[in-house]
Amino acid sequence: MIKLSVVDETSPLEAVILGTAQGVGDVPKLEDAYDPKSKEHIAAGTYPKEKDMVQEMDAFAKVLEKHGVKVYRPEIIPDYNQIFSRDIGFVIDDKFIKPRILKDRDEEIQGIQYVIDQMDPAQVLQMPEGAHAEGGDVMPWKDHLFVGYSEAEDYEKYIVARTNRAGLEFLQEQFPNKKVKGFQLNKSDDNAKENALHLDCCFQPIGTNMAIIYKGGFKYEEDYNYLVNYFGEENLIHITKDEMYEMNSNVFSISPNVVVLEQGFDRLAKILEDKGFTVERVPYAEISKMEGLLRCSTLPLHRKNSN
Ligand SMILES: NC(=[NH2+])NCCC[C@H](N)C(=O)O
């Protein structure tokens, strides 16, 4: 039986699902892309190749294994993008949530069914019809659950709006002891620099009391201010619009002191090293062309001390 326990974003990681680029197949048609950065690279002829992405993900897997983490990989579904495991399910406390996600991606869960089958069925929850969420929008953080979501006006308008109010409310009902705080994000289906696809594309807690944040990702200044008050200005690392586009907030914590970064994130690496973090760097620039990075490709199952 697989033990589930995740109460925050950084406690020492013991078990994780890491997506796979194997079988991702050829360049999708422009009209089949579901995020603006992929569209940009399809149009420019620079869409990433399977072989390069497989190498990047293997490098990431090696770093996780070096730190003693048990890594599960999805079973391969031919010609299907299974890189971003984060979104297709998520663990909060000792529950595995099966959310309702973007239609174009709803077969992805089949690749990790063999992992779900090893969980206690009483710990697996299915979100009801009409309630939508993707794991990139969901972040347990101590007594809080931070959730990126869109109200109907945006949810119905954008393919990149993936979590709705019903999804947020489902999470509040299931976890009555947590303070569920929703944040509306700025969305664009056509311009990646104006789009916070998920909450983890503009914000992520690190260490024990810090966070990486891009103010422009938040639709409402009061939501951004909530986080400034919660973490304290001195504990926030602000990133620029270009850094958001390069996905600097989508790093991944193996523990409160060890953070995995894309190898080109020099400015962020320096800031984190100056604060005493151990920084692991992996090549992930090809994967970043699909508007996801390290956090997006992981689905933590168990973090130590968290329960
Ligand atoms: N957790 C995340 N931010 N995931 C990114 C997923 C990117 C993927 N291209 C999509 O549009 O669904």
Describe this structure in words.
With 307 residues, this protein is α/β, with parallel strands linked by helices. It has one domain (13-303): L-arginine/glycine Amidinotransferase, Chain A. Helix content is 22%, strand content 21%. It is built from 8 helices and 15 strands. A 3-stranded mixed beta sheet has the order 2-1-15, with helices on one face. A 3-stranded mixed beta sheet has the order 3-4-5, with no helix packed on it. Strand 3 (90-92) and strand 4 (95-98) form a beta hairpin. It is globular, with a radius of gyration of 18 Å. The mean pLDDT is 97. Arginine is lined by residues 34-35, 38, 84, 86-87, 136, 197-198, 200-201, 290-292, 296.
Shape: globular
Secondary structure: helix percent: 10-25%
Q: Going across the biggest sheet, name each strand in turn.
A: 2-1-15
Structural domain tally: 1
> Which fold name is given in CATH as the topology?
L-arginine/glycine Amidinotransferase, Chain A
Each distinct ligand: arginine
CATH class: Alpha Beta
User: Can you give the mean pLDDT?
Assistant: 97
CATH superfamily placement:
L-arginine/glycine Amidinotransferase, Chain A
Looking at the overall shape, the CATH architecture is 5-stranded Propeller
Give the structural class: alpha/beta
- Strand proportion, as a percent range, falls in 15-25%
What's the count of strands? 15
Order of helices and strands: EHHEEEHEEEHHEEEHEHEEHEE
Q: Note poorly predicted spans.
A: none
Distance between the termini: 17 Å
Q: For the report, how would you describe the main beta sheet?
A: 3 strands, mixed
Contiguous helical run count: 8
Radius of gyration from CA coordinates: 18 Å
GO molecular function: arginine deiminase activity
Pathway: Amino-acid degradation; L-arginine degradation via ADI pathway; carbamoyl phosphate from L-arginine: step 1/2
Organism: Marivirga atlantica
EC number: 3.5.3.6
